[in-house]
Amino acid sequence: MHINVKDAGEQAVILYLDDVPTEQSIGQLKVLVEIIQEALDDDLIDTIPSYQSVLVQFNPLTTDHQRVSHRIQSALAQRRYNPPVHTRSQIVRLPVYYDVSVGPDLERIARHHQCEIEQVIERHCMNIYHIYAIGFAPGFAYLGHVDDAIAMPRLEHPRAQVPAGSVAIADHQTAVYPKASPGGWNLIGRCPSPLFQPQQAHSLPFSVGDRIQFMPISQQEFLDLGGSLDDV
């Protein structure tokens, strides 16, 4: 696997992997991040993996682009970077209340695919989704791949406000909105679990390379878990 290292601003470099994103290669990003963390140690500020790249932010007071690139390349050469086929990742199970009251696009998706709403829900739950990237908003994980039978393009006119916890589909990706925000994805349900808690030591319950499984729950279970039926 070939990796290109390029400058990305005053205190960052970005690593590009040549491969097309796959479930295997996304898992391999976790290994690459570990190598970078070991190579840069205290000079490292943060690593941000996404699809087939890793943004590396470093302390410009203690090092520079050239030394960072050299140390990463040396570490990769020493480790003979060739991640295993199966990389370690956790499965995070998220409860979801699927209903037209919180998933206003359910009926339209079912009509588009000429199926029942229950079939849309069943197909969404049957997959275990890989986290390809985290962005747009803190805790917003881009998950793939959604079954062809329920995939839907983004809305032509995005909503001005999407409620926190909304579970949505856009093309062959799915996601949960961690906070209320504008959004153009198709809403199919709502999750009561908090996905971004900055006050906690681990602000997110998952990372790139992990997997997500959605578990259908009743309205009462949703409310008992702290969910809200409000529109904002």
SSE diagram, text form:
Elements: E1 3-7, E2 12-17, H1 23-40, E3 44-50, E4 53-58, H2 65-79, E5 91-96, H3 106-112, H4 117-126, E6 128-134, E7 141-144, E8 159-162, E9 166-170, E10 173-176, E11 181-183, E12 186-190, E13 211-216, H5 219-224
Parallel strand pairs: 5-13
Antiparallel strand pairs: 1-2, 2-4, 3-4, 6-7, 6-13, 7-10, 8-11, 9-10, 9-12
Helix pairs in contact: 1-2, 3-4
Organism: Reinekea blandensis MED297
Protein name: Carboxyltransferase domain-containing protein
Keywords: ATP-binding, Hydrolase, Nucleotide-binding
Defining key terms:
232 residues; alpha+beta; Gyrase A, domain 2; Cyclophilin; 7-stranded mixed β-sheet; 4-stranded antiparallel β-sheet; 5 helices; 24% helix; 29% strand; elongated; hydrolase; Cyclophilin-like_dom_sf; hydrolase activity
